[in-house]
Amino acid sequence: MRKRALAVMLAALMVLGGCGSPVTVEAGWLDGPDVNDPSLTDASYRVSTRPGLTLADRTRPVVIGVHGFTASTFEWQEFRDHAEGSSPVLVSLVLLGGHGRTVDEFRASSWRDWGDPILVEYRALVAQGYTNISLAGSSTAGALMLEQVASGRFEELPNPRHIFLIDPIVVATDKSLSLIPLLKYLVSNVVSEGTAGEASHWYANRPAEALAQLNQLIGRVRSQLARGVVLPTGTRAKVYKTSSDPTADPVSALLIYKGLRTADGQTVDVQMLPSTLHVFTRLLGRDPATVSEADRRRQMDAFQEMIQKVSQ
Predict the structure, then answer these.
(1) What CATH number does the domain located at 27-311 have?
(2) How far is 219 from 86, CA to CA, in rounded Å?
(3) Full-prediction pTM beyond 0.90?
């Protein structure tokens, strides 16, 4: 048994890059001090702070779009541009706590820090009189939203109309993540390669501390789903999940389907999609060779359905 356990740990180390990589920061990377998420200085990213909106705009549907682990508001930019360019829907791009700044700030943040800005924006919109508010979370943001619902964070607020979960991570595809509590003493940092178009919008470095927080979050969400999670009264949810996701194991969708119910006891809608992309709704910045016409159709179909649902 000891030999087998050692073999598993050694294999995990190989997956995570040996004994880890030193933190590397190049000019133009989100990890460094010279690049920050634009939402930190541009008030137009969040609907609650956007200049020029009137009292009449408060009757319009609002979707709070929230990105995943290591990402930034860029992940929902395509949806914002499409929705606001083709419908009355307003899209509020929320930056997770600890993200969009230096990698040192990312390392020091907890998963609770990550989720706080979602509720801050939601409360701000409610205070301003918006009444048709929905949530859309990709990857880790989906896990954060599930955790917030399960923990009753919306109980004293008007209920969200819809919650859209795009490739939510409840179980990681890479099972070595579950060993991070042990391996973090050996692996201090993992470097992830992206395209040139992604360098200023995603962290290349993934500190062990941040990976441990992610593992803690999704473990908590799995436990909550196993006990049963009930959506607020009147809230509807839909899960969009790719079938060959390299980051979020497709079993995540099954666990959500089994563990999440509407207030009147109904199961939630889960749509499995034949794709190898993680966060299939984000195509901008990817290597064009990895994006097919079918990927583009799936993205637009999801965008149109989300817009249609929140506009009813």
Answers:
(1) 3.40.50.1820
(2) 39
(3) yes
